[in-house]
Design goal:
By secondary structure, this protein is an alpha+beta fold. Strand 4 and strand 5 form a beta hairpin. It is globular, with a radius of gyration of 20 Å.
C-alpha cells in the first residue's frame, strides 16, 4: 500500500508539472509582451481555462488520495434501486448526444455493501461508457444473476491496453488529450474502490456488437 501511494504521488506530480509549466510560460510571455502574447484578450481566457483544468485535476487527486482513508461500513441496500438512480443523469447525457441508453434491472436486488464507495465506482464506469460511445450507438446496463453488466458500443480496446487503463493518469493513444481522454483517474478509482470492498470485476471487448463490457460480480 505504501508503494502504491508513493507511485500515485509520483504520477500526480508528473501529471501536474506540464500544465503548470505551460501556464507559467504563457503568463511570463504576456508580462514581457512577447509577440502574439500581447493580445491579452486572447490569452487571458486561455490562462483561465488552464487554471480550471488544474483545479479539476487537483480536486480529483485529493479525492483519490482519500479513497482508503474513510472506513464506510457495509449496510443493507436495494442494489437495483441504487443503480437505477445512478443511471438517471447518464441517461439524460446519452439522450443529449443521440446515444441509446437501455436499463434492465430486477425489481429488487438486496445486497450488503458500502453504498457510497460502490456508487462512486459504478458512476465512473457509467461516465466512461457514455463518454466513449458515439451518436447512434448504445449503452446497456443490466443484471444477470449476481452480475451487474455495463456495455457500450465502440471500437474495442486492444487486450494489451486494457490493464494499463487502470493505472493512474494513463490515457491510451486514442484518447491521450485531457479534453477527449479525461484525467486518467476514472478506472484507477474504480479499481481502488472495488478492491477495497473485495468485489471482483472484469473488463473486456465485445465482438457483436463491437464494444466494451464491464462486469461487476456481486
Amino acid at each position: 500500500m505504501e508503494q502504491e501511494k508513493s507511485d500515485f504521488l509520483r504520477a500526480a506530480s508528473h501529471e501536474l508539472k506540464t500544465p503548470v509549466t505551460a501556464l507559467g510560460a504563457t503568463l511570463e510571455n504576456m508580462i514581457l509582451g512577447a509577440g502574439k502574447y500581447q493580445d491579452y484578450a486572447a490569452y487571458l481566457p486561455e490562462c483561465k481555462e488552464m487554471v480550471g483544468q488544474l483545479s479539476g485535476m487537483i480536486h480529483e487527486i485529493l479525492e483519490t488520495s482519500k479513497l482508503n482513508a474513510t472506513d464506510e461500513p457495509a449496510k443493507p441496500v436495494d442494489l437495483a434501486a441504487l443503480v437505477e438512480g445512478l443511471c438517471e443523469p447518464y441517461r439524460i447525457i446519452a439522450a443529449a448526444h443521440q446515444i441509446a441508453f437501455s436499463l434492465d434491472l430486477p425489481e429488487q436486488f438486496p445486497a450488503t455493501l458500502p453504498a457510497g464507495r460502490f456508487s462512486k465506482a459504478v458512476s465512473n464506469v457509467l461516465a466512461n461508457a457514455v463518454a466513449y460511445t458515439q451518436a447512434g450507438k448504445a449503452v446497456s446496463v443490466y443484471m444477470d444473476e449476481n452480475r451487474l453488466i455495463i456495455e457500450n458500443e465502440c471500437n474495442p480496446i486492444p487486450e494489451g491496453e486494457i490493464r494499463r487503463l487502470f493505472e493512474p493518469f494513463y490515457r491510451p493513444d486514442f484518447s491521450r488529450s485531457r479534453e477527449s481522454g479525461g484525467n486518467g483517474l476514472g478506472l484507477y478509482i474504480v479499481d481502488t474502490l472495488l478492491a477495497s470492498m473485495n468485489i471482483f470485476y472484469a473488463f473486456a471487448a465485445m465482438k457483436s456488437p463491437p464494444g466494451m463490457r464491464f462486469i461487476i460480480y456481486l
